Amino acid sequence: MSEKKTYYISTPIYYPSAKLHIGHAYCTVAADAEARFRRLDGYDVMFLTGTDEHGQKIERTAIAAGKTPKEYVDVIVEGIHELWAQLNISHDRFIRTTDDYHKKSIQVIFKQLYDRGDIYKENYEGWYCTPCESFWTDHQLVDGNCPDCGRPVELTKEESYFFRLSKYQKRLEEHYEKHPTFISPPSRLNEMLNNFIRPGLEDLCVSRTSFKWGIPVPFDEKHVVYVWVDALSNYITALGYGSDDDSDFKKYWPVQVHLVGKEIVRFHTIIWPAILMALDLPLPEMVFGHGWLLLEGGKMSKSKGNVVDPALLAERYGTDAFRYFLLREVAFGSDGIFSNEALISRINADLANDLGNLVSRTLTMGENYFGGNIGRVPISDDFGRQLKEAAEAAQTGYRPAMEKLQFQDALAGVFKLVSRANKYIDETMPWKLAKSKDEADRTRLQEILYNLCEAIRIAGILLQPAIPEAAAKMLSFLGLPDEDRAWESAFTFGETKGFATRKGEILFPRIDLEKELVELEAFKAKREAAEKGPQETGVVTLPEITIEDFAKIQLRVAKVVNCSAVEKSDKLLRLELDLDGESRTIATSVREWYKPEDLIDRNIILVSNLKKATFRGVESHGMLLACENGKNDVKIIFADDCRPGAPVN
Ligand code: MSP
After folding, report:
1. Which amino acid residue places its CA nearest to atom 17 of ligand 1?
2. Which of 38, 41, 390, 576 could form a disulfide with 562, with the two C-beta atoms 3.0–4.6 Å apart?
């Protein structure tokens, strides 16, 4: 018996330094879909993910949190495990760079590189960006800051070990030329050549002495191994390279694809292959640099206005719906804009409407007209033939798209089939035939339902990598024996003997977009307030007062009849108020958050018996009530439904 072909796929190993957002989930879900596809396609798959736990950044964050680095990462890594379980990630191995076996293998690798003369010791003076854990030379800095993230860099003077990266420049260029898909998609190749390779590679500093949180250099323990050498090597240490049992390494290496975000392509296509060359090991077949999910205003980490917590989104809409969005919305390789609205709209349009309707209409008709028993009837008309063609197009387009990691194309093909099947229902109008007792009409009705079940069956099989739970439900609603659920059977329309359908639950409930956006907004405000904590919002607990004390304060509704900016002040607005015939003027410092036109014609709540005071030449009589939502976020309390002048108690 011939051995199964192996397929090794990896995600980056994640820094356990901050809460993972959907940008992190993006790559892992993509890798998972690919791994599931390959398993179904008969490969022996090794899907690796993990966490990158060493380095100065983590050491500093842990200290700031009053913990040891290990205590700090342990908690976060636990959360990452939970998140991957929630997102149904089917990784075969999870590596932590703090695992003992990894640390030992890194020491073996470092020593091998040293013994081969590819690592040497020298004094180093240069710039280090701690958040990026990257070294930069003078001429690489942009306005004196890190060229990647724009943050300040620190001057580092240390005795360090260096890796002879410059020695591999030519071999790297040759490798790129001979293996045009090594750096994928192709646009990333030019970026690497123009920005890094052609300006000339310099040797790389691969050890640090200024902090402790890393793997000690085995022959010089005051040094720790540079985090990127530690991290990149995970792809082989996870397979046992440098240990007593390297059978997995022999079996799975070289990797078929490292999936990475675009900003770390350079580490994976320059430093990593050079290390592998130095170790005399084969290079990865492909490094695929996917794009970023961005928010309207910029980066995911500044998530103003949108909820980007993958655990929360998966909990609210379901794991499969969330996975589907990540795979379908943006071409893998390009950047894409994320918004909660886009997520909900996509779920509603494709899953709740198109797929959900097809499945529920078909199963309801199957049960009502045939008690769920639908036998095979050959196709007799053009509508049926077109449906079959749509199924074949989805099948034949699927594999090449998945092989190129173009998930959105593979899924778009399946959803074309789903739309075609919905159209088929409208064209053939089975509910009309159902009224007839005529034998020929019954047969025709059965033919229609059989074809619809075939369409659902094939869509269900092809959707397994992307939405595994929903796909399994679709297949089970059809009552199929195992052989008709098998991957290969997705390539045969019309050969299933028959179906024993049952009406299942709704696969993807429709989400009320407007209502949901409001709820998310409220949720986000609440979470942010909780995260900021009481000290930051400046809340101090005042001594108790009596009801009599409170009764001294008179609150009344006031209508803003006019509003303008106060001259020579960038904080104050002047408000002309009406309290049911009585006029007032107040000056209030909300200009940072409100424009005059936001306030005119709105009702506010006024502390109306406050003594007069003059601000920047405006005599102010009273004070409006506003809420300090968070640091630098103020919201006026409006009372638009209330009568101007009315007392507030
Ligand atoms: N620890 C390194 C990787 C070492 S691999 C040997 C690292 N970790 S990370 O946690 O900062 O990022 C992990 C991955 O998440 C990167 O591939 C990065 O591109 C990806 N993403 C982080 N934010 C992202 C988006 N907003 N959108 C898509 N992916 C993004 O880098």
Report:
1. 261
2. 576
